[in-house]
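Explain this one:

_____
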Amino acid sequence: MLLENKNAVIYGGGGSMGGAVAREFSREGARVFLVGRTRENLEAVANGIKADGGTAEVAVLDALDERAVDAHAEALVSQAGSIDVSFNLITRGDVQGIPLIDMTKDDLLRAVVNGLRSNFITARAAGRCMVEQGSGVILALDSGSANGSPMMGSTGPADAATDAFIRNLAAEIGPQGVRVVGIWTAGLPETFSREKLAAVDSKFQDEAAFQGLIENLDRMRMTRRSPRLAEVAATAAFLASGKAGAITGTFVNVTSGTFPS
């Protein structure tokens, strides 16, 4: 198994992506620690993992709260002995579908600040532990929209901030045995609902607009098919494993070819 005897922390572990990653990590042998703000969602994922014979624990906290994140990381190391993988998958409050010149300052900056702040807080907490133990992998995820994606609103600037942080962190703590790697992916139909999309872009309150997006997603890809949750989760497990030991300071393109990289 790729992650046998590894301790993996997943922030946002109760969401669609977080749950898929947690289940894949568990199948690959990891002991999974699920972190988020909603106990019910976290417990649902944890119970599923346990039912399949895995090990999962739940902690309710806000990944934007640095004291809570630091305390949880310290307690985890004291309890489990190490943090081997840390993956931040919390939502940022993105706003899309509005021209940049028509956006408000707050709508633009919310995702930038939340995304950079949460990735910094969680990566710092894990990174300090990993540097001390001389090993570990920090993972991050965004859509890759920093490469130029019109009408993506705050998502592009937020992705750019995350991309720069991940690359710079990798350069700083790589000599201490810690890898820092990102994943680009976007538009996974399995994670969609009209309500979720409308919270990001109001036009998806309309059922026709929602269905039109779903139908158009496959046509946007070089492969003419959207990525699947299982594929993203499997990529994350590989990147967290020793088999990807030479990969750091970069983002792996898991968009099914929405754009080249």
